Amino acid sequence: MSILLAVDDGLTNANYDMADVFFLIAAALAVLSGLAYATGNVGTVSTENDPAPRQRPYARFHAWAAALLAFAVGAVAFAWFLL
After folding, report:
1. Do residues 18 and 7 make contact, with C-beta atoms less than 8 angstroms apart?
2. Predicted local distance difference test score (pLDDT) of residue 25
3. CA 64, CA 6: separation in Å to the nearest integer?
């Protein structure tokens, strides 16, 4: 309970310390990870007019989903260490 109060106190009173900053970084990385995972499967697309397979436009972003989530977990762990 004291961890949640410490984070809430820093965010509501604009009294940011390094733990609050790392919690915000972790939240942003988690959102980016979710967006990267939601972009679809990595694969190829072929159309009727263009039968040559092409890579999907967001395939590289999708491939980074696990790494972004790992960075988010690491940022949360480091923020807890700083509290």
Report:
1. no
2. 92
3. 32
Cβ–Cβ under 8 Å, residues 57 and 39: no
Bridge partner list, 47: none
Residue 20's Cβ-count burial label (10 Å; 0-12, 13-18, 19+) is: buried
- Residue segments in the chain with a per-residue pLDDT below the cut of 70: 1-13, 40-58
Distance between CA atoms of residues 29 and 33, nearest Å: 6
Residue 32 has a pLDDT of: 93
Distance of CA 11 to the CA centre of its chain: 20
